[in-house]
Write a structure and sequence with these properties.
The complex is a heterodimer of chains A (614) and B (134). Chain A is an alpha/beta fold and 614 residues long. Chain A is built from 20 helices and 20 strands. Chain A has a six-stranded mixed sheet with strand order 4-3-2-10-11-20, sandwiched between helices. In chain A, strands 12, 13, 14, 15, 18 and 19 form a six-stranded mixed sheet that branches. In chain B, a hairpin with a 6-residue loop joins strand 1 and strand 2. Chain B: This is INO80 complex subunit C.
Chain lengths: 614, 134
Amino acid sequence: MAAAAAGLVFQFRDARWLPDPVLGPSPAVRTPQPVPLVIDNGSFQARAGWACSDPEVPGEPLLRFRSLAARSRGARGGAGTETQVGNDLGSPEPLRWLLRSPFDRNVPVQLELQELLFDHIFQRLGVSSQGCVDHPIVLTEAVCNPLYSRQMMSELLFECYQVPKVSYGVDSMYSFHHNTRQDWPCNSLIVSSGYQCTHVLPVLEGRLDAKNCKRINLGGCQAAVYLQRLLQLKYPGHFAAITLSRMEEILHEHSYIAEDYIEELQKWRSPEYYESNVHKMQLPFSSKLLGTTLTSEEKQERRQQQLRRLQELNARRREEKLQLDQERLDRLLYVQELLEDGQMDQFHKGLVELNMDSAEELQSYIHKLSLAIEQTKQKILQAEVSIEVDVVDSKPETLDLDPLGSEQSLEDVESIHEFEPLFAEEQPDVEKPVTTVEPVFNLAEYHQLFLGTERIRVPEILFQPSLIGEEQAGIAETMQYVLDRYPKEQQALLVQNVFLTGGNTMYPGLKARIQKELLEMRPFQSSFQVHLASNPILDAWYGARDWALEYVNHEEGWITRKDYEEKGGEYLKEHCASNVFVPIRLPKQAPRTTETLAPSKVLAASIGNPCDLA
Amino acid sequence: MNENKFMTMDPNTGPMEAAIKPLPFKDPNFIHSGIGGAAAGKKNRTWKNLKQILASERALPWQLNDPSYFNIEAPPSFKPAKKYSDISGLPANYTDPQSKLRFSSIEEFAYIRMLPSDVVTGYLALRKATSIVP
């Protein structure tokens, strides 16, 4: 077995993030006029770059970092709280509990943290304008972004950074427009799966048909947490080593989506398939559980030494006790003799000294004490006898072995349903108290995580959310639900171009699975086509850049500062890749120094300069 | 946090200045208006979380067909959920009456019976099946 197992062992890369340098942008970004800054503000990653047609300026996102910030307390004085954003964190694991993200699901709610992210972006991109960020900004937002969130975001951009104009769009739409070829129709059913949620978006005539969109609250984050808990339950000894970043690595590299889930599971039942397809992730060796690297004989020796020491200690204690008791007994007997001899007053004096009231009490006490002495003598005798016997089967030994033994037997047991029960013979061997050498313990294997059915089980939550107890329907059922809201001709149009985008769609086998699901739900012998985005992760950014380059000088789609002041932060100008704007006015949020209003109904609130600044 | 940056311009907090430089492109006097709930004070810098935002959004006068963040939640599934083993993920035909875990073979059953109770609860929690309803 060792030979076959050696084939599929993988290491965790545990890559550290490199901090982003402060870039000095080429002068082309400022002349003849400041070019748009394109920011794909995602709950997983933020990507930022310039939208400039000058060849000097790269047409890729210059900054890509996780949307995380950590505020670590520095020196004692309370001052020196250091904030690290994105790639400056190095590695997310040591600070896992301090990491905060401005996002709640896929909507930014903590705008202070969003401000930190923007600061980081502007600083690293080399924005040098004083008192304002000169460049127009193209920003992505959630599908049907809550008006409050857009209001807050506009406020941040216009008030804090004094941006001249802003455009909001949906990332999946940008990706769609980037990937649209000439021969593709402009109707599509976009399936966009991100970190926090998955959307099914019907697009008609190039515009998002927002009232028929549906969102499933499952994405890469839920998959990573599910995988983490599965592995932690399976390998309780490695609880701390099973970290979210490692889970993300496993998902990105070792998981796939089965075309037919039940059939694939049947394949995994057979031991040969298991053996050839299990991925073993090698954890770094940790000596925590095993203590030192003593061999088994040395451990036994040490245990026996400890036992001997304990026994000696006990024996000594017993002897001392015996002596004390003896002395006391003698005193009592002496006093009793006084009574028998008839020396009453001395007897009474003796009683008082002993703190007793009567002769009967004295008698009973003497009785008890002599019994105790007898017992102690017995115990001493026994101990002396047993010291000679080398104790082999001792409690500490089995306790120590058990976690290890049970780990191994657990692994064996669960692979037993894939293997013949050859290993059943090995199990009682491990459990037995050891006088001989322990069975050869494969240290490397102990530190391996076996990924068998987990490889398909975890991505399957997109299609069957009931695996993690979610009541929502999976992608296939939601697609059917959305399609059913349209008349048949439009359904046929939509299904001609099913477009998959988003980082969470990069599992191998997703396209085949979606095709199979469509085959099941569409009428017999109707046609459909599934397309994958060329670069599911970055296409949103590229699409936004394309849009910015095309529309930078147009009025359409940009919210200027004047619009913001007149129509409020929740105003949205629609364009080909944006949400649908619902013209409801939110009451203006009062600044911090005064009370907040109770927002219930509509009504244009105060126009003009917002917050009173202290 | 903005305030922090500008209050530390005093000379006696010399070493602090090097660490926190005011960023040139920002308006130094900006305060988020979203901070602060009812008792807006220095300490109460709480933002509304998504649930609260959605709750207040529901109260707005939406028309029937307007798309909104909560309108576009996917509906619950109409198909019955398939049962899979909690341990191996294979289709599960059996459920352990004692721990309510699902399993697909005898070896898995033996494994389940040996599990400590926190692992059992963990598996059930994974499926959100931990309610005490009998």
